[in-house]
Write a structure and sequence with these properties.
Shape: globular
Distance between the termini: 32 Å
Number of helices: 4
Strand content: 35-45%
Oligomer: single chain
Strand order of the largest sheet: 1-2-3-4-7-8-9-10
Radius of gyration: 19 Å
Helix content: 25-40%
Amino acid sequence: MSILSLFRKKPDSITINDEMGTFILQNPLKDKLYDGEIKWLGREVSVSLYRDDGDSPSADIALENLRKIVAESADWDKKLRQCAVEYAAGEDGFVEIWGKTADFPPITTEEFLCRISLGFLYVYPNGEIYFDYDLDEMFADHGLGIYANISGEILSVGLMG
């Protein structure tokens, strides 16, 4: 690191104000994500709007994708929860859970669905969305990541963390 870099002024953050919330790009020279929070079915959810290299048009496209998702949040939630059940439940309809130090008895899919919640999502200008579900420590400290596209197609599902 050169001595001159210590004296350079950090660029001002860039803010997108929208009826859904405020999204901030902290360092426009380095960061690719505008971070903020929205209401998703009555709960606060962290959101990152991804931008491609360059200026904000791609973030504007990601914001438009977010608007579409939020407008259909009930349908998305139903689809994502069904996807989570299909991923986690066995043929018997129960979910085998495990912790850091012990195994626990299986739970019903209904109990599983009551315990999961959307924690954050990434929205990309190319129409892809990453939903991260908090699994209430049912699988140690893992979350459930679901990649989808704006047209509703599920691209992949898996434990993350």
